[in-house]
């Protein structure tokens, strides 16, 4: 049998999640919906950069292209594809479909998925009560102080429906909790909240900074503020005179909105530096803007995002005294508006467009 044919056969009968656990049983595996995720065994990036589904595996950092079962063996074991196929086909890695100790308990997986979905629904139902707590509850004083120290005003809290929750479990130690600021992430089509993100307002013993209810993969924070530009039936295109800033952190997107929205600037966040591949709706929308800035800490990430959008200008966070200065840092120091508008002028195609921006 040819290697390609054998690989196809193995692909059809192999659960790559079981295979990945067999190949790397020592990884800190976690379930995320129907996928498993863990720190990457090759580049060692993050807690969930390496993700595995029933038919594929990939690393968002060092191997974004999805691999099938044979490809995963070849990658992890550093062997040619024909050798990877031989090992799988000859059961040299143990029978792929055997009930090994690392085999997923599918019933438990389904129960866990149902439990996560209920948590997501409960979190979305709690968005508005959490917002009221942030604005009025004495218990939220620490969270209000945290946001004000980050330069974010109550008007911005309300624009993004920020909230307060007294205790969320730490991802790395579920026995411990810490207070958080919350915000919803919206579906760009329906306008409904689809996930809730949480930012711990104190340093945690585990080093955790964020946690979530619901997945933000493929979602962009701030989509609710640009939905009017996604209406295909309209006959006006105001975004052609506006600027779009794509950033990786939600607090950065809030900062750009606060400093620049009155002058025709919109902001979207990818929610994570690992999510650099933009969804199709965002690429289409961004291509209609008069200017687009892709602002990320790493210059290579800024360039990767910019390559997906015509005429986009990649922007890397400046470094001062060895520390990267992001949008929120600039908001606090009072220079964010000037920074964005200077780069916007550089990204505009001609003097007429720059004159329009100056009027704004």
What does this entry look like structurally?
By secondary structure, the protein is of the alpha+beta class. 38% of the residues lie in helices and 21% in strands. It is built from 14 helices and 15 strands. A five-stranded antiparallel beta sheet has the order 1-2-3-4-5. It has a four-stranded antiparallel beta sheet with strand order 6-7-8-9. A four-stranded parallel beta sheet has the order 11-10-12-13. Strand 7 (173-186) and strand 8 (193-200) form a beta hairpin.
N- to C-terminal distance: 67 Å
* Unreliable segments of 5+ consecutive residues: 94-104
The strand order across the widest sheet is 1-2-3-4-5
Tell me the helix content.
25-40%
Instruction: Output the helix-strand order.
Output: HHEEEEEHHHHHHEEEEEHEHEHEEEHHH
Provide the structure class: alpha+beta
β-strand amount: 15-25%
The best one-word shape is globular
Q: How would a textbook summarize the main sheet? A: 5 strands, antiparallel
Query: Residue-averaged pLDDT, rounded?
Result: 87
Radius of gyration (Å)? 23 Å
Continuous helix count: 14
The counted number of beta strands is 15
